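Researcher: Go.
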Amino acid sequence: QVRLVESGGGLVQPGGSLRLSCAASGFTFTFSNYPMSWVRQAPGKGLEWVSSISIGGSTSYADSVKGRFTMSRDNAKERVYLQMDSLKPDDTAVYYCARDRTGSSRGQGTQVTVSS
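Model: Structure:
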């Protein structure tokens, strides 16, 4: 079955940067045939869509992260990435990569904490 493993989270000061990585495996077809997404869950809140990347590499972002986050993919390595710059305390959450915006098949997540 599909397995997604996120990494790269940590504690960072406001204004700092982090790069999240997601290793994918178990897809029925070649990884490049699947769009992917990042979602997050802040403490006490529901799941929030962050970004998506299409088969062709087109990206879309939630308004809250647009201009600060960049999603990319490396099909040869079966990985997706989320470059997060100008981080804010409101970005504190567990970040998951997933098969779609609803968070389907998401992994165990990686904690991102933005605090001084």
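Model: The mean pLDDT is 95.
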